[in-house]
């Protein structure tokens, strides 16, 4: 098996250096400097050959220019890099939304290699060392993008850039799918609100169609494209942060969350339905109510300068307004939307001290989590006070403007 010969063939059919390296090397190759990696991999090939060996200056027939530097410069010129500086986070990640015809071309090229160099194909696939296109993109351009924006690439970052890419021949090339799997695409065409040749559908078809059928309809090697991929948009998304902890409640006079009721300070709560004659003065201002949620929100606002309107509180268990919560406390979670601030771990102890200045509530074990808050929010907390569901349900419906309400659980 001669790697030189395979490399020469890949260039002849119109592959770029990075795609050639992706097929020839392994996933640990240096994709950032693909030319040097190819020279190291193919000692007989000189530096000039790697640089000039491509027959035509065309977009790559495999990645359609996605892995070429010109496309990276398009992304780097986007305004998203100014917007990302508004976020205090020191990391970011990139997700690619690429046209589905790249997947068809990828399969076609693999089959071409399989036919032309069967020994090499078996070796590469048995080792599972071929990197997919998206991973190659990230490995190749990560360092340059990090330098460009001054942040670190991190797959767990809450700051995500969604890069959407288009190719002019996309519609024309994916039409072959209807010959590979006629039934599926006939059904999809009849469905009004479904994209017929959606990427997931194309990938699913490519996964189940056998080589023989594929080769009947798709030309190998893939043709030389007339144009490169184009950058459509780069959208910035900031994932919510989740702060978890446990709280103890030492007062019988406060609740977990504010209620839209006037409640007496003893065990007999008085529920006052809202009527048109009520004025705002007679109703509770949710943000100023002394309750566990607001005490914790105040602490987060003071220590991390977070906007209270962007926070959602969720605690386990039901709210017992006239009972204390002692011992190891009750777990809770705060979801923070569009957090422009980074929350350093070392400030969580200061946060606990700030919240614990309240005589009514103590918190501990507060920390950031990336697992989110599972479970549903307590949407029916008010109903726990109803003595007669038949009488009170209409009131609850009216108060919360609910068209449909069912009590699924009751506690005596
Ligand atoms: Zn390429």
From TrEMBL:
Question: What EC numbers are recorded for this enzyme?
Answer: 5.4.99.25
The GO molecular function terms of this record are: tRNA pseudouridine(55) synthase activity
Q: Which GO terms describe its biological process?
A: tRNA processing
Origin superkingdom: Eukaryota
Highest classification ranks of the organism? Eukaryota, Metazoa, Ecdysozoa, Arthropoda, Hexapoda
Q: Where is the Pus10-like C-terminal domain?
A: 242-370
| Name of the molecule in the record | tRNA pseudouridine(55) synthase
Chain ranges of the Pus10 N-terminal eukaryotes domain = 60-232
Please provide the record's keywords in A-Z order. Isomerase, tRNA processing
């Amino acid at each position: 098996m001669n790697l030189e010969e395979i490399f020469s063939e890949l260039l002849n059919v119109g592959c770029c250096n990075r795609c050639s390296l992706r097929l020839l090397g392994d996933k640990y190759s240096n994709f950032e400097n693909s030319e040097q990696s190819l020279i190291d991999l193919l000692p007989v090939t000189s530096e000039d050959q790697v640089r000039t060996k491509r027959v035509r200056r065309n977009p790559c027939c495999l990645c359609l220019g996605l892995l070429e530097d010109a496309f990276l410069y398009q992304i780097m010129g986007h305004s998203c890099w100014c917007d990302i500086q508004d976020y205090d986070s020191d990391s970011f990640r990139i997700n690619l939304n690429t046209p589905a015809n790249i997947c068809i071309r990828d399969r076609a090229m693999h089959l071409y290699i399989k036919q032309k160099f069967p020994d090499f194909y078996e070796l590469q696939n048995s080792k599972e060392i071929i990197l997919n296109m998206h991973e190659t993109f990230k490995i190749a351009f990560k360092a340059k993008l990090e330098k460009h924006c001054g942040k670190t690439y991190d797959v767990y970052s809450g700051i995500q850039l969604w890069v959407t890419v288009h190719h002019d021949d996309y519609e024309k090339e994916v039409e072959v799918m209807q010959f590979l799997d006629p039934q599926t695409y006939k059904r999809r065409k009849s469905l009004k609100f479904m994209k017929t040749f959606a990427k997931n559908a194309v990938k699913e078809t490519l996964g189940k169609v056998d080589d023989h059928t594929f080769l009947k309809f798709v030309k190998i090697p893939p043709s030389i494209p007339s144009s490169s991929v184009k950058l459509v948009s780069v959208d910035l998304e900031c994932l919510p942060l989740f702060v978890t902890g446990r709280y103890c409640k030492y007062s019988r006079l406060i609740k977990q969350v504010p209620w839209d009721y006037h409640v007496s300070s003893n065990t007999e709560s008085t529920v006052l339905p809202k009527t048109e004659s009520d004025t705002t003065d007679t109703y509770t201002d949710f943000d100023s109510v002394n309750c566990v949620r607001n005490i914790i929100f105040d602490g987060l606002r003071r220590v991390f300068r977070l906007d209270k309107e962007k926070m959602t509180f969720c605690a386990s268990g039901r709210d017992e307004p006239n009972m204390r919560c002692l011992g190891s406390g009750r777990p809770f979670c705060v979801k923070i939307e569009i957090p422009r601030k980074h929350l350093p771990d070392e400030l969580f102890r200061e946060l606990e001290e700030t919240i614990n200045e309240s005589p009514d509530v103590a918190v501990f074990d507060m920390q950031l989590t990336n697992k989110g808050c599972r479970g549903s929010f307590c949407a029916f907390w008010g109903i726990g006070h109803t003595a007669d569901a038949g009488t009170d349900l209409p009131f609850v419906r009216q108060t919360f403007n609910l068209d449909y309400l069912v009590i699924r659980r009751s506690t005596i």
